[in-house]
Amino acid sequence: MPYKILEKRELGNSGILFEMILHTPLIAQKAHAGNFILVRVNETGERFPLTIADYDREKGTITIVFQVFGKSTKLLSHQKIDDEILDVVGPLGNKIHIQKYEYPVVIIGGGVGIAPCYPQAKELKEAGNKIITIIGARNTGLLFWREKMRSVSDELIICTDDGTEGIKALVTEPLEELIVKEKISIVIAIGPLIMMKYVAQTTDGSGDLPKVKTYVSLNPIMIDGTGMCGGCRFSTVDGDIYFACVDGPDVDGHMVDFENLLKRSMRFKDQEKESLDKYDHECKALDKFQNEVS
Prior knowledge:
The chain is α/β, with parallel strands linked by helices and 294 residues long. 31% of the residues lie in helices and 28% in strands. It has a seven-stranded mixed sheet with strand order 12-11-10-9-13-14-17, with helices on both faces. A five-stranded antiparallel sheet has the order 5-6-2-1-7. A three-stranded antiparallel sheet has the order 4-3-8.
């Protein structure tokens, strides 16, 4: 059955970040931090994964946040309140393991990855943990959910690459300072692959800093989300093969072969650009036609 969009808003001032609340009663009943959904906007659309950014069991809703990157996310961004999405499948993937840790938990969100950090921080905070959150983006226009993250954090550190908000730094810089200053139980990083790679390198114990258990959230191309298609496979530094949809999406960041994963993430770059260009051309042609007949 189709799933109605109850709320939609633009985040930040970049024009490419959007938040939607969807009416999905059955998914909301089972959702936990770490889970994701597969979305197909219409009959000709592709299936793509989005991590659940929040859920409300009483209202029967889930929240998703996405950044316009290709044709499918742009198509989703064009949907309006009360429009219906054809397919929403989930919750998929493994929920994060919630427990009370001895030392603080550091949660790092980069760009659109800030959104899935929220339920993780919330559930870990409810379990009695001290939560230190670091959120970062290229500039202030790409930051969002500051107050939501502050509400589930004992400390919130904001970074921007250009210094337009918070401290001018990459997220790894305050992370290094925290590891030097106090013991950390675990680090959770969600964001661009390159960001998660450098977070994992910061905490792997290969340098002057002690090793800290680190989880990253992988969000590669997926089709079925149940381990059948193999599109989301990733290799480890030891050469083993895993699937992000069923073995993750949260996995041990120190085992991921990020170099291989970064290369795999670019393998459909040309096709994605061609698809987006075609969609943009069709949208412009439709707008022109509607203007002529109105």
